[in-house]
Amino acid sequence: MSSYSFSPSGDYLMPPSMDYNSVLEHIKALPLIARPEVFGLHENADITKDNKETAGLLFGCLLTQTSITSGGGGADGAEGGGVVELTRDMEARLPAPYDVYEVSLKYPVQYYNSMNTVLKQELIRYNRLLSVVARTLHGVYLAAQGLAIMSAELEECNNAFVKGIVPAAWMSKSYPSMKPLGSYVADFLSRLKFLQDWIDEGPPVVFWLSGFYFTQSFLTGVLQNYSRHNRIPIDQVHFEFTITSLESECEEEPSFGVYCKGLFLEGARWNRETMQLDESYPKILFDTIPIIWFQPALIVNFNPPPCYFCPIYKTSERRGVLATTGHSSNFVMYITLLSDIPQKHWINRGVASLTQLDD
To answer: What is the per-residue pLDDT across 121-131, written as a single tens digit (0 to 9) for each?
Structure first.
């Protein structure tokens, strides 16, 4: 019994003897800093914790930096010149706003195809954000050269650009994101291209789940299409999930439902051989999930095999606020991932899927 180990590492054993002094000596010999396994976590949890603490420290250092701006100061300094170049580069990469009216003519509202309505609503949301981004970039570009007055909003944007973070003016109209400025802009442009390809070429065979502003609207549209085609009340329908062996592309769309990609698994990995949830590899914090087949089905017939109900979040923050629609701004839904390990194991691991990473 004294050799019984409470953990895989073998660091936490039964005391060799149960008398008082022996137990005290055994406790003193335990590691001073508890390993993640003590709390049911994977060894990678240490890396995640250290990354978050480092990011918090660096962000705090950024906040201590002062930035002096004025309406007519010009861009004589290195900082001002850098902002001019940065804003000019970002503004040049922005596309024109979507012509929602023209798209409405090409993709009219149809009773049996809710995707047209979903597309139109997404364009309106992204146009709103695109307008704010373009306006503030141009305003800071002019103000940094002394050609316009630096308002409070533009000053906040200017300071954010210097620090490499996303301005509050953008985030007030944006989807949730924890990316730094450069990665945010690249991700934003990828989302706009995803929608433009949809407009030009029709609905994609595989939908990029990360590209939606309001993901729940898209998912509801898929359920609505199924319920209307089969004349079933939508509140009696839900999604069932099949993880395919395809990583990113597929030639043919499914017979019903949709194919989706773009999810990242945190706290575990998807085993491509056993097609089940498995432990993460050491020092690999995230794993991409292959294409998922979202299959609408009757709730009453739901009888899942052993699986883990994995939550989907938009960001690693894993928290949000309730919108007026009743949906969370961060939590999306649960998906079922096959597993021969009890759910409580993965809950202790903190396993979740994300639509985007922080870098």
So the answer is: 999 999 999 99
